[in-house]
DoxX family protein
Amino acid sequence: MTGALDTALFVATVVCVLANAAEVVAKAVRAPFMVQNAAEAGVAPKWIPYLAVIEGAGVAGLVAGLFGWKSIGFAAAVGLVLFFVVAVGVHVRARVFHNIAFPAGFLALALAATAFFAGPAG
């Protein structure tokens, strides 16, 4: 059972890397959907590049963790958990629920990555 769980957490961690990397690119190029979502949630456009840098650091840390620096991967995963807890909170505060599944899904992936790096396989 542990082998299957380790594999599932590894896959979720890789998906977390890919999903967050795609989101960083969307923020970096100021994709219209990203700017619109931020505006709906009350996030000023000037903050988008800073959010991209923070999220990008998380991606880099997860990749480092996958390449053997487990403590960096763990720290990055925890950082992404905090990032997406705030993102979900911002959506709730702004009462923007039609797309809350996205930050909630990213939060779930970050939690899985945290569990992966906290476990013996990470």
